Amino acid sequence: MRPLVPVSTGVKLTLGVAFFVLFFAAWAVATLGGYVNRTFLADPLTMVAAGWRLLTIHGFSLDIGVTIWRVFGGFALAAAVGVPLGIAMGAYKPIEAFFEPFISFARYLPASGFIPLLILWAGIGEAEKLAVIFIGSFFQLVLMVAVTVGGTRRDLVEAAYTLGAKASGIVRRVLLPNSAPVIAETLRLVLGWAWTYVIVAELIGASSGIGHMITDSQALLDTGQIIFGIVVIGVIGLVTDYLFKGLNQWLFPWSLA
Amino acid sequence: MSRLVIEAVSRTFPGVGGGPPTRALEPTSLAIGDNDFICVLGPSGCGKSTLLRIVAGLDTPTTGRVLLDGAPVTGPGADRGMVFQSYTLFPWLTVTENICFGLREKGVAAAEQARLAAHYVGRVGLAGFERHYPKMLSGGMQQRTALARALANDPKILLLDEPFGALDNQTRSLMQELLMGIWEADRKTVLFVTHDIEEAIFMANRVAVMTARPGRIKTDLAIELPHPRHYTVKTSPEFSAYKARLTEELRAESIRAATMR
Q1: CATH number at residue A182
Q2: What is d(CA A197, CA A136) in angstroms, rounded to the nearest whole number?
Q3: Does a cis peptide bond (omega within 30 degrees of 0) precede residue B91?
Q4: Does some domain include residue A2?
Q5: How many folded domains does chain A comprise?
Q6: What does the alpha-carbon distance between residue A23 and residue A21 come to, in Å, rounded to a whole number?
């Protein structure tokens, strides 16, 4: 192995799958081999059986759908407000000076700490779930977008000025296209965080969703179901991550070439 | 009549961390006639790039002013095209789209943009690379695209800030010949900043030598080599005489610059 030398697609795929295989094998040995008490950790086969039961008898697919909608709903709201605000802050320093200190303060406020308050304000319906995800992702997103846009190479901006661009042209034709791939990567990252917040929101005061199923299973001591729920989130996360990556590569071929 | 007039332009940068302010440029005056090709030659750090940035409107002079066709320069504009030393092609645009950047900003019709882009792609010898992104191009090809991008805008004056400084020797020579050929055909007014003596003599009608920091113009030398200039002129006795003279001028300043810090 030499530092930074890339590997072929085949090797990459094999190595990536190999870790999953090893992980499940170690888990199977620990549980099926009797090294771990099955009350606390279900074995892989029990998990699959529990998952099948959940999907076929308990209508778990509905819970999955509800959770996905909450994640993307909250994330879309945060992105719809956060990306334009971040761009404005990155491009125009007075706007940044106005918002930046408050957003830096707000991003340290724990989103999960807001849950009791949000339940008081918005009840235990969808609005509360979306609000938790919004609070959890919005402030981080705004700051990262602002830093990205503000970090645009000055010589590119100067070149555009000498070609006759005015302020609005600089924002539309230099800052935006230059920042777009990094903003897309930021969105991919923040979407991952949104998944964490949705489960936390569903652990408290929810009547549907993957997180709700996990809390219910805890009362029943069904670790198979809990683990199945966690694995489902992992799989959805992996799939959306790859979709996002593929979309970014398709949209911004110039940033890879 | 002079196309560009630099009137007693100076630049002082504020001190860093409470230190004394830095005088980058002493009051400097220079008049550039229509169709002139002027090289500003100076040791590194003499303020020649600062002077060019002030002409471009990317920096503001502490004193003095710059007049283009009699009108004072207040900011950057499409009438002064610039090629930078660093690679400043827009990485998200193809060669053609880069060349059309200024034309689009002006609102030139799409068909006319395509015609001009094709023309300048041909002029800088990049036919076949129209749809390439900058990352796929060598340094020399990127600078040729940057030159085409500046020329396509049809500026009143072309400002070149050591545009070939990052290129290897052979590529640099070819780029000089390319630019020379374009200038001989169009006679576009050019202000070219460099620290390379041979480059200055080969390209220019006049070479303005700057002193070490704080810079000012100490010599203004007319280069009377015939056109069209072929690369073989670099081995002629006249060329060598100019080179000997400018080497002396520049060497004194480089020594001053080196002993200053």
Answers
A1: 1.10.3720.10
A2: 7
A3: no
A4: no
A5: 1
A6: 5
Domain limits for position A181: 51-255
> pTM of the predicted model, to two decimals?
0.87
CA Rg value for chain B: 19
In a domain, A11, yes or no: no
Question: Contact A184/A246 with Cβ under 8 angstroms?
Answer: no
For residue B20, count CB atoms less than 10 angstroms from its CB and return exposed for 0-12, middle for 13-18, buried for 19 or more. Answer: exposed
- Please tell me which of the candidates B90, B105, B133 has its beta carbon nearest to residue A156: B90
Instruction: Give the SS3 label for residue B24.
Output: strand
In a domain, A144, yes or no: yes
Cβ-contact B98, B90 below 8 angstroms: yes
Closest chain B residue by Cα to residue A164? B78
* Numbered ranges of CATH 3.40.50.300 in chain B: 1-12+20-79+160-261
Q: Does B105 contact A173 at a Cβ distance shorter than 8 Å? A: yes
A251 domain residue, yes or no = yes
Tracing tokens 């990155």 back to the chain, one arrives at: A90
State how far the Cα of B185 lies from the Cα of B96, in Å rounded to an integer.
22
Nearest-neighbour CA in chain B from A138: distance (Å): 28
List phi, psi (to 5°) of A92: -115, 115
Confidence bin at A257 (pLDDT 50/70/90): very low
Q: Which long-range contacts (C-beta less than 8 Å, at least 24 apart) are formed by A43-47?
A: A46/A224, A47/A224, A47/A227, A47/A228, A47/A231
Chain B environment of A158 (Cβ under 8 Å): 56, 58, 76, 82, 84, 88
Tokens of B102: 């200024």
pLDDT of residue B1: 65
- Provide the b/e sequence for B70-107 (b: ≥16 CB within 10 Å): eeebeebbbbbbbbbbbbbbbbbbbbbbbbbbbbbbee
Q: Tell me: the pLDDT tens digits for A82-114?
A: 999 999 999 999 999 999 999 999 989 888 888
Instruction: Return the SS3 of B214.
Output: coil
Rounded Cα distance, B104 and B240, in Å: 45
In the 8-state DSSP scheme, what is residue A75? H
- B1-12+20-79+160-261 has which fold? Rossmann fold (3.40.50)
